[in-house]
Amino acid sequence: MDGDPTPPSHSQLLGDKFTESKRQYFTPTASDSDAQPTERPTTDGNSQSPQVSISVMTPPPPVTLSSKPYDSSEFPEDMYPPENFALVSPLIYRSGMPKKRNFPFLKRLGLKSIVTLVLEEYPEQSRRFLEQNHITLYQFGVAGNKEPFADIPEPVICQALLVLMDKRCLPALIHCNRGRHRTGCLVGCLRKLQEWTNTSIFDEYRRFSAPKSRSMDQQFIELFDVRPVLEQIDPENVPDWPTISYSLQGQHH
Asked: pTM of the prediction?
C-alpha cells in the first residue's frame, strides 16, 4: 500500500468554473505546493463589513494519516471535544470553533481538512496546529442568514460541498463560531445530497441551533439547488454513501 491518497490541490478541487466565475471570492496561487492563504472579501454596498471571504491554507506535505472513524472509547477523559461536536457522516464531523484545549481531541481524529464558515481571520494558534498536523484549511467565510440584508451565497455553499464530497479531503471537520446556524445550513445542504427528507433535515437543524433556530436558514436549505454540485462532483472520488451514488446515477443518465 502507498498510504492514503494525496488530497487534491485547491485549484483541482474547486475547478476552473469556480476560479473563473467566482474570482471575486478566491484567487488561486501560481503553485499549489507553495500555496498561501488568500482572502478576497466582498462587501455589501451599504455596509463596511465583508459578506463573503474564501481562502485555502495548504499545509506542508502530509504524512500517512488514519482514515478510520473515531471511537469515543479510545479517548482519555482529559480530551475535550469542541462545542456542539457531532458525527455527521462517516469521516465528516461538525462543531463550533475549536479552541486550544480541543487540539488533542482533534489530533486523534486524523483530520485531513477543516471547512470553516467564519468570516474572521483564522486564529494564529489554530493555524499552527493545522500546519503541524498536515491539515488543510478551507475557509468559506459567510455572514450567515440574518434579516434584513445578509444571506448565505449558494455558490459558496456549493464549493464547500465539493470539498466534503471528495474522499481525498476526508476526514473533515465543519465548523463556524458556535456550530449552529452556518454549520447547520451546510450540513442541511449535504443532507439534501444524501436525499434526506426536509422533515428530517429540519429536525437535525433545530436540534443543534436551539433555542435560536432561524426560519431563513431553513428556507435556504429548502430552496438550495443541489444540481450544480452534482454536475461538478468527481465520481471517482465520491465518498462511499449509497444515496450519493443514486443521485450521481440520476445526474449522468
From this structure: 0.71
C-alpha cell, 220: 435556504
Residue 196 · residue 89 · CB < 8 Å: no
The model's pLDDT over 23-39, given as tens digits with 9 standing for 90+, comes to: 333 333 333 434 444 44
Q: What CA–CA distances, in Å, run from 21 to 17, 140, 156, 188, 243?
A: 6, 16, 12, 25, 29
State the DSSP code for 102. G
Residue of 158, 176, 185, 189 marked active site: 176
Q: Could you say which DSSP state residue 33 is in? A: G
Joined together, the cell numbers standing for residue 109 give: 481524529
158 an active-site residue? no
Q: Each residue of 167-183: pLDDT tens digit?
A: 999 999 999 999 999 99
**Residue 129, all three cell numbers:** 496546529
Instruction: Give residues with Cβ within 8 angstroms of 50, minimum separation 6.
Output: 41, 42, 43, 119, 141, 143
Distance separating alpha carbons of residues 201 and 22, to the nearest angstrom: 28
Contact status, residue 130 vs residue 57, Cβ threshold 8 Å: yes
Rounded Cα gap, residues 111 and 114, in angstroms: 7
